[in-house]
Design brief:
With 291 residues, the protein is of the alpha/beta class. The chain folds into 2 domains: 64 residues; 207 residues, Rossmann fold (3-Layer(aba) Sandwich). It is 38% helix and 19% strand. It has 11 helices and 9 strands. α6 packs across α7.
Length: 291
């Protein structure tokens, strides 16, 4: 009879043989198959596995991983900025790169304090807005996506993390003008699709074959959504409101120009751990006179 650690070692060996080196992924797969948290799995790693279904479930999950399915979809959950988030194929998997945008948004909203409002566009799983809600609980968050399936994931994550009190999810298309009911905001954050269309085929198969390509396709030059958001949604910002984007490698200068052309000033660029100019933040100069 195998222990939990024995099952883990066998699964890790199979994944490593295929070039998948993540020990964490393997632990999460075995823990998920056993119905345990990561901490519970580690605590029981030397215990014998009496449930014969568990090794079979691990084998099935490993086969799916070897076929290219991302671990996040196997588990149905992924961690982002300390939050456990439900994920499925309706949303892209939250990346660690995006935690820089969440971090800067949290700083902004903490400074603004009580009753400040943040709009998270192209919300997907809701990871950015929910991270802000968890760490700056005095503010109010609106998550926006054009996919009903993605919004269902957002709402499930709001409930899972007990953040429904100060977070709302709304269906809207950032390529169009905002709904009249939106109101005004102190800040807008957006991690838009930004991969140039011609480069989508070069993405890893685990991305192309499983994640929604609509979450990656940024149009011919990868900048289509940046222009649309800056053009269509800037009017929702209060005087001195901030707009913050995540962008891809090499896109920062173009995104800065888009913000400048849309009336933003004081534009700052934030660099991620790989040295990539990843987050661009600007302050709105023009104010919507109708508000």
């Amino acid at each position: 009879m195998d222990t939990y650690n024995d099952i883990y070692i066998k699964a890790r060996r199979r994944l490593r043989a295929a070039g998948i080196e993540s020990d964490l992924e393997t632990r999460l797969i075995v823990a998920h198959a056993a119905g345990k948290t990561r901490e519970e799995f580690l605590a029981s790693s030397r215990l014998y596995v009496t449930d014969r279904k568990i090794p079979r479930i691990v084998d099935e999950l490993v086969e799916r991983r070897l076929a290219g399915e991302p671990a996040a979809y196997l588990l149905g959950e992924w961690e982002f900025y300390g939050l456990p988030l439900i994920v499925n194929k309706a949303v892209m998997i939250p990346r660690v790169d995006t935690e820089l945008l969440a971090q800067e948004a949290i700083k902004m909203m903490k400074k603004l304090g009580r009753q400040s409002r943040l709009l998270d566009l192209c919300a997907g799983s809701g990871c950015i807005g929910l991270a802000v809600a968890a760490h700056a609980p005095a503010c109010r968050i609106v998550l926006v996506d054009n996919s009903e399936q993605a919004l269902a994931v957002c709402r499930a994550n709001m409930l899972k993390n007990r953040l429904s009190r100060n977070v709302t999810a709304v269906e809207a298309d950032v390529l169009e003008s905002p709904p009249d009911i939106m109101g005004s905001f102190d800040a807008i954050v957006c991690n838009p699709p930004y991969i140039p269309t011609r480069e989508l085929d070069a993405l890893d198969e685990s991305v192309r074959g499983h994640e929604p390509m609509s979450a990656f396709d940024g149009g011919p030059d990868g900048l289509y959504y940046f222009r649309a958001v800056a053009s269509n949604w800037t009017a929702l910002l209060k005087p001195g409101g901030r707009m913050a984007f995540e962008c891809g490698a090499g896109q920062a200068p173009a995104v800065q120009e888009i913000l400048k052309d849309s009336g933003f000033r004081g534009i700052n660029v934030y660099i991620d751990t790989l040295g990539i100019e990843r987050v661009i933040v600007g302050t709105a100069e023009r104010v919507n006179q109708e508000q």
